Amino acid sequence: MYSTQTDIQGEIGAAPLIELTDDEGLGTVNAARVTAAIEQADAEINSFLAQRYTVPLTTGLVLLRDLSVTLSLERLYGRRPGSLPDDRKDRAIAARRLLRDIADGRAALGDVPAPAPPPAAAGPAEISSAERVFSRDTMGGF
């Protein structure tokens, strides 16, 4: 996993995390719900990154942790209809835009080397084809 419950709690605090996960009213964070949100967020991250990298990644984790926290919180807030603050929504949109840019090669993960481009063929290209069937001479009467 790219982030942890501790990362998410560090972002929003304990009380809001309890509110987002404690459906049973026990007064504690439901770790299973947090883990599920992280797993879903990480799967989304990997779906973007798999276009360019072998996932899951083990480097570039500072950025990936931030993206995972952002997308996990979007999911946790989404459990309570109408509770997603505008700044969280904007962060999630920006995270997906960045992931799209990374997948398309317009942005990089920082300390993760981009995959090497395929080697170029040496020399000019050669084309071969069958003998020409139709020409001005063979089509003269039409």
Give an account of the 3D structure.
The protein has 142 residues and is mainly alpha-helical. It has one domain. It is 51% helix and 0% strand. It contains five helices and no strands. Helix 1 crosses helix 2, helix 3 packs across helix 4 and helix 4 crosses helix 5. The longest helix is centred in the first third of the chain and has 19 residues, at 31-49. The chain is elongated. The model has no long low-confidence stretch (mean pLDDT 88).
Short summary:
The protein has 142 residues and is mainly alpha-helical. 51% of the residues lie in helices and 0% in strands.
Question: Over all CA atoms, what is the radius of gyration?
Answer: 25 Å
Q: In this structure, how is the largest beta sheet organized?
A: none
Helix/strand/pairing category: mainly alpha
- Characterize the overall form: elongated
Order of helices and strands: HHHHH
Number of domains: 1
What fraction of residues sit in β-strands?
Answer: under 5%
How many E-type strands? 0
Distance between the termini: 70 Å
Protein topology:
Blueprint: H1 5-12, H2 14-21, H3 31-49, H4 61-78, H5 86-104
